[in-house]
Amino acid sequence: MPVTHTSVDAEAASRLVAFGMRPKQLPARDVVYGELVRRYGEDNAFKALTHAVASGLGLMVLEVTQQAGCVLAATDESVFEIKMDSYARQAKIRERRETEKVLHGLIHLATAALGYPRPDDLANDTYIGRVSVEQVDAMVREAARVLDERAQLAEANNDPLADAPELEQAWRAYARRPAAAATKDGRMAADTTRGMVSRALRFLADQGFLVQVSDEQGGTYRTTPRYQIQVRELAADAAFDDLLALDVVAVAGAGGTLRATASDTLQ
Hints:
Blueprint: H1 7-20, H2 31-42, H3 44-56, E1 59-65, E2 69-74, H4 84-91, H5 98-115, H6 119-123, E3 130-132, H7 133-156, H8 165-176, H9 193-206, E4 210-214, E5 220-223, H10 225-234, H11 238-245, E6 251-252, E7 257-258
Helix pairs in contact: 1-3, 2-3, 5-7, 5-8, 5-9, 5-11, 7-8, 7-9
């Protein structure tokens, strides 16, 4: 016999999806949200209905837990997909050229790799990573240095690189920008790499993926369960593995606390 859903069920599933679209809302802070999450985990029919509601809105349910809540991702061409222009407005990016898009993509990739540098970190639901503006900037710069060395070696051997030219240009463009510079009023200049990283991390915090814990190292943040779920999806991307394979992320101890790489001394 086919499962039938009442309008009450549909409303409840829609409400759960709506909660998931509020990035800083958590089940522990809302009794209704917590009850809907519990029902999702215990009622397969309600779970399927929630997925159907999300799909109809151009969304995909990645995971639903009491720690992270309902974590959603927009499908291709969804009205909820964050386009570069929208991200630029939210992150206050002045330039929206193709190179700028790639640069910010590199920053987000490095942030995810620093937050969860080992497979065990992503698998451990209790793991909390930490990232800072200076660490992310140092990682991208070190990756740029490694890739530049590879490019020079390949050129010396007359062995053309397989990477897309625009990606190579983006790495070099990042390396050429100053890491930090102050404006007349003492603020960090917007066109420096640390200024770019700072805006990217604030954007992730606004989305409920990071929480700022101090102003040290240009701004230090801890990861959230919501971000961990998102990075699990990202980890399937070859670019994530390629960045980790450059061996520019260093980890100290079983606790997973990040220590600075040699490139952190760059100013």
